[in-house]
Amino acid sequence: MEEFDYKAFKKMVKEHQQNDEPTSWCNSIYEDVKGDYTKVFWSDLESNPYLLEYISNNKAEGKKAIVVGCGVGDDAFSLSEAGYKVTAFDISSAAIDLCKKRYENSKIDFLVADLFDYPISWFEDYDLVYECNTIQVLAGKYRILAREKISSLLKKDASVLVSCRSRREGQQENDIPKPLDKKEINEFVHKDKLKEVFFVSYYDTQEPPICHFFAEYKKSIFL
Ligand SMILES: C[S@@+](CC[C@H](N)C(=O)[O-])C[C@H]1O[C@@H](n2cnc3c(N)ncnc32)[C@H](O)[C@@H]1O
Question: 177-222, pLDDT tens digit by residue?
Fold first, then answer.
């Protein structure tokens, strides 16, 4: 099997970021797999256990969820199976094509959209927002904008679940993807005025293991 060339990937992303093109490279990752979603190198092809635990402990009926940067669609599918009315979007049209073929009989509304310029009707319209690994592929000011846009999708009393790679402050500053440190993820609380409901830092099962954060932040009914 052909090995994924991480060095070339990182160089390519860096070049786009240096040209202030934060997302123009994303589609190529999905186009390169030529219709085989199992070959998308960053896809786990299963949902995070903390998302599954959240789903099993929370009522979904009648609730609207949105999945940010949905990739090949596993998380959207888990949420839909649980009973949420799911919108799942990605800036990559090739990713959305893969999702639509993979889940052609599902009720999920898969669509191409840009988090930075999402349809106006999405503003404060969701009971649950799921963000997994989108912020970490962005650089500089786009990470801040992404966080703000993610929070802006929440209705009052709604939650965002954030799943990402993590790092210690001051370390891995030039990594691609660049993991979030505690200070950055805490901006959901300090800047967007959400309340931390649940926060966990854990290592995954890769070799070598990678450290991650998973958190739930809730919007107040008064905001
Ligand atoms: C590392 S991948 C994660 C995909 C998926 N969430 C997962 O966990 O497998 C990041 C995803 O974010 C998407 N993305 C990046 N910037 C975006 C934006 N501005 N709007 C929508 N999607 C975006 C990319 O196309 C890519 O699918």
Answer: 999 999 999 999 999 999 999 999 999 988 999 999 999 999 999 8
Classify 219 as helix, strand or coil. Answer: coil
Expressed in angstroms and rounded, the spacing between residue 222 Cα and the centre of ligand 1 is: 31
Residue 194 forms part of a structural domain: yes
Does residue 100 sit in helix, strand or coil?
A: helix
Ligand 1 contact via 43 beta carbon (within 6 Å): yes
Give me the amino acid identity at 56.
Answer: S
Please report whether residue 117 resides in a domain.
Answer: yes
Chain centroid to Cα 201, Å, comes to 17
Question: Would the pTM of this model clear 0.90, i.e. be above it?
Answer: yes
The pLDDT tens digits for 66-93 are 999 999 999 999 999 999 999 999 999 9
Q: Whose CA is nearest to atom 14 of ligand 1?
A: 69
Has residue 205 been placed in a domain? yes
Of 45, 137, 175, best ligand 1 pocket probe by most atoms within 8 Å of the beta carbon:
137
Range of the domain at 207: 6-218
Please choose, from the candidates 156, 155, 159, 134, the residue with its C-alpha nearest in 3D space to the C-alpha of residue 145. Answer: 134
Ligand 1 centroid – CA 70 distance (Å): 6
Q: In total, how many domains does the chain have?
A: 1
Q: What share of the chain is helix, strand, coil (3-state, %, to 5)?
A: 35, 25, 40
Determine which residue's CA is closest to atom 4 belonging to ligand 1. 71
The reply to whether 223 falls in a domain is: no
Which of 80, 78, 118, 111 has the alpha carbon at shortest distance from 95? Answer: 111
**CATH number (domain holding residue 173):** 3.40.50.150
